[in-house]
Amino acid sequence: MKNNLTKRISINVNNKECSIEVDIRESLLEVLRNKLQLTGVKQGCSVGECGACTVLIDNVPTDSCIYLAIWADGKKITTIEGIAKNGKLSKVQKAYIDEGAVQCGFCTPGLVLTTTALVNSNKTYTDDEIKREISGHLCRCTGYQKIFQATKKSLERN
Predict the structure, then answer these.
(1) How are beta strands 6-13 and 76-78 bridged, if at all?
(2) In what order do the strands lie in the sheet with 16-23?
(3) 11 forms bridges with which residues in the sheet?
(4) Per-residue three-class SS string for the chain
(5) How far apart are CA 137 and CA 153, in angstroms?
(6) For residue 1, is pLDDT > 60?
(7) pLDDT band at 3; cut points 50, 70, 90
(8) Model confidence pLDDT, tens digit, residues 95-141
(9) What pLDDT does residue 4 have?
(10) Could you give all domains of the chain from N- to C-terminal order, each with its CATH number?
């Protein structure tokens, strides 16, 4: 007899297909960290306020702590572990390092993913729009100016 509290979901995580049994009450954060060992996804506030748990779901920045894993069925999930390609840092990761936007690193994965989504959108953003887009992330170390500069640098077209 199948447990009514579990469901098998199929998700694409960092370009790898994954079929996994989840408790219907588990957050995507819990599944990514505890079942798939993707510990770059950080648990901060657990109420969707700090942005530490941000992942991209179909290229949309999403707080995985308040997103049920069953909602991810059939979706493409990108975590910080899926940003570098063949051991080479992404443009966004390089910009964060170049601008000194990485301090303790706790908020950095979520910010890098949000910035990656902005870059992937191929839109042009004003300074105020950039600030609004990254405003869902709390950082206790940098004062945000370096994060803003790194995001702006990432959006420069080469």
Answers:
(1) parallel
(2) 16-23, 6-13, 76-78, 54-57, 60-63
(3) 18
(4) CCCCCEEEEEEEECCEEEEEEEECCCEHHHHHHHHCCCCCCCCCCCCCCCCCCEEEECCEEEEHHHCEHHHHCCCEEECHHHCCECCECCHHHHHHHHCCCCCCCCCHHHHHHHHHHHHHCCCCCCHHHHHHHHCCCCCCCCCCHHHHHHHHHHHCCC
(5) 18
(6) no
(7) low
(8) 999 999 998 889 999 999 999 999 999 999 999 999 999 999 998 88
(9) 86
(10) 6-81 (3.10.20.30), 91-155 (1.10.150.120)
Nearest to 9 by CA among 40, 30, 31: 31
| Structural tokens at position 52 | 């530490």
Tokens of 32: 């990514």
pLDDT 10s digits, 41-96 = 999 999 999 999 999 999 999 999 999 999 999 999 999 999 999 999 999 999 99
Which percentage of the chain shows pLDDT scores above 70? 97
